[in-house]
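Dear U.,

Please find below the material for section 3 of the report. The protein was modelled together with zinc ion; I have listed the sequence and SMILES used, followed by the predicted complex structure.
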Amino acid sequence: MRCVLAFLIGIVVHGILDITPHQYPFRTRIDILISTLFFIVSIMLIRPKFIPLFGAAFLGSILPDLVNLGPQIFNQFFETSFPVLKFKIFPWHRAEYSGSIYDNSRTELSYTFHIMLVFLSSALILLGRNVLRIQKKIAKCPTNRCSKR
Ligand SMILES: [Zn+2]
């Protein structure tokens, strides 16, 4: 159940971030490379029991791009001819709802949102208990009797 929820939250957060005005500081290839590296490093940093939850959230957060933009990007990179949907299933990829900015008119706003996202994500990761392998495990102890161990 938690994985399904994480998957759905990943889709919703993707939509919110795509609707928010933003520019792309990196080219698509670099963007995909950095995202893949973040994913691999994240898998290495989190405790194994959270990997399915993390995987579900990650899959949910990339699904809209995979469905709406995946074949087009794949065709562009590998000169293939996979069929491309003529409509966008996820509405935030349609021109009228997308926050994508391609004319560099709001660079500062875009960078502000990117920095806010990095800080928010970092705070959530650091505030999470027992999520990272490097964090000390917090023992489950309903009483104070076991705290002297
Ligand atoms: Zn998207």
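For the text of the report, you could mention the following: The chain has a mean pLDDT of 86.

Regards,
Y.
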